[in-house]
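Intended use. Records like the one below are meant for learning the mapping from a protein sequence to its folded structure. Do not use them to infer anything beyond what is encoded.
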Amino acid sequence: MCHSTDVLECVVNISEGRNLKLLSTLAEACGEDLLDVHIDGDHNRSVFTLLGISAPRRLSQCAVELLHLENHQGVHPRLGVVDVVPFVPLVGSTMFEATQARDEFAQWAVTTLGVPCFLYGTEKSLPDIRRQAWSSLMPDRGGPDGHSTAGAICVGARGLLVAYNVWMSSDATAETSHALARQVRGDGIRTLALNVGDRWQISMNLIDPLRIGPDIAFDRIAQLVPFMQADIDHCELVGLLSEAALKKISSERWDKLGLGVETTIEYRRSHGYHF
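Structure written out for the chain above:
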């Protein structure tokens, strides 16, 4: 019997992207509910795309047991070894169910793992938590102190979004990259300019991907770079996107944008995924 919570997506961000043996152990904990793993060694971060409400708990428990926040170094901001756990309604489930799954996960994390949780959704956004955590904002569940080795978890309920990176050419400067991020930010696009290895990256969350997808985000940057003495090197999808979002983009552009049928949630649900 299929329950509506089985068609919730959960995109868990783990603060580990270099130890493949550890990542393999984490992937095994997810079982058949694992749709994708995106590994980034420079960010020292991996994104696990899961189905349902059970796999996020198995993954999180394994991560808290194996990882230590004080040992983590990476360019992406993070609050915990299990950094972000957003529940997302797919076709067949609702935002109410995603919010319920969020709240139940947070309570479980506090009582079972002893890890405090910040909640985001309609009440506040993830960027709000990033800016205010441990200063003007304390955890919504659990005590005022982070877990000694695991920190805290940001647990959310949100709609589908697309995480997307545009890598700049080697001649792009910090000034250029931050200027690009500022000018592209807004109207459905959240941005960070990150120095990754010897390159700069415009890291984006596309929060309304049926309206503003990877193609539009790419074009906004491409229109600006000629005036900034820089260029785009390549593009990178982090995790998966919906089939509907992909089909809004001409298939002739998929390869250049780092997209394809196999990068959709629907494809992975029907074909499975092996780490």
